Amino acid sequence: MIEFQDLHKAFDGKQVLQGLSLKIRDAETVVIIGYSGTGKSVALKHIVGLLHPDAGDVIVDGQAVGTLDRNELTLLRRGIGYVFQFAALFDSMTVAENLELGLRRRGLDEEEIQERVREALALVDLSGTGDRMPAELSGGMRKRVGIARAIALRPRYILYDEPTTGLDPVTSAVIDRLMVRTREHLGVTGVVVTHDMRSAYTVGDRIAMLYEGRVRQVGSVAEIQETEDPVVRQFIEGRPE
Amino acid sequence: MIQAIGRRSISAIEAVGRFGQFLMDMTRALADLGVWARLLIGQMRRIGVDSLPVALFIAAFTGVVLALQASYTFTGAVPLYFVGTLVGKTMMLELGPVLTGLALAGRVGASMAAELGTMKVTEQVDALETLAYDPQSYLVVPRVLAATLMFPVIVSFAIATGIITGWLTSLALLDLSTPDFLKGLKLFYLFKDVWFGLLKSASFGFTIALVGCSVGLSTRGGAEGVGRSTTRTVVYSAIFILVLDAFWAVVLL
Known about the structure:
The complex is a heterodimer. Chain A is of the alpha/beta class. Chain A has helices at residues 40-47, 70-77, 95-105, 110-123, 139-151, 169-186, 197-203, 221-225, 230-237, and strands at residues 2-11, 14-24, 29-34, 55-60, 63-64, 80-83, 157-161, 189-193, 206-211, 214-220. In chain A, the strands form 2 sheets. In chain A, strands 6-7-8-3-9-10 form a 6-stranded mixed β-sheet, sandwiched between helices. Chain B has one domain. Chain B is elongated and about 65 Å long.
């Protein structure tokens, strides 16, 4: 289980998170929605210790991430896959090498590594692209490789940072389907940060709206769709006023 | 005015603190041998092979100029075989290490800052961390060790090249024979000349790579930030090289 406990974070004096509290239960996918700059990605980075909280903390499997030392953090990260907004593929490595890197760190033997790479690429419909460089791939393919890199690790948690941003509607739908398939196949707990409502409704078990640094409303897809909160309504309907 | 000076002073002290922390993190990452050891050879090859042409080009022309300037200075006052002495001593003690260091601050340091800076702004460094790698042991340690080990090798070739071109210039353009050039070269030669130059070059390699990695990994913003980091690396490295050059001269000569 992942739990944000009264999380606060500021950058250069600007308060981004102001008491974020949210529980993510095992095997569910929670989508965090909210306006640009409200701290969705910042919240996600706290889960893997890429950022340190000013106050409060994130509890992952009973461990307060902000208090872990480097070795403990490394162990925690072994159970978490992270899909970055722009995929963050290593551009000096081939697709296969991108996937292999995390697996080698886990000390797997070569046969197992190759098997997992094949399996993960097949799951994202990119079999046969292992020898290609990231620069040769389209934006959608890069995102799928990013997802493959995360699922090859067979993590307990997968964190998706804006997985459909910048993609055309069809490619976005492919990524959504992939996230659903990943949850069904691997039974992982997912946290998805997005402002793409179609994606949120497709992949989320629950949706949490982040507003002014804290959760404004959290509920099932149906509850969010029927909300009477004016701020949440305005956001999910995409109304300018 | 006073506020501005205060802000700049605090900022400078913070920068020194961050650099010290970076150095400590790198020292700690040395324990992660399994990660950096397999990347070391690749970095050594990259630094060595990529840097050699620039270093040799500079050294070749430095040797020519040294021989001609020595002959111009010595004419009528000092025996011409001292051209060999001046070319040898200057290449080994000063110009070999320092000119190569300054050139490689641009070639190696800037390249490291640009590469790591781009990785930083495109979240590749964060990705590395989420894959349970320490960026210090994966990115910094192999580069710093490779530069520390390879700079003396590159400088050795540069020194040899400078002496050879100095000798060829003496033969072709000055009225100096090979035995006379060699006589001058051996005249005040000390083994210390060699190790002093190589020690200096190792310290330059260490510093250039450390600055390149440190500045690269602290890059913020997009392409503009990478550009700023690259420029900053060249400037800081050049300053460090000149300060270190003076430091070693005071301590060891």
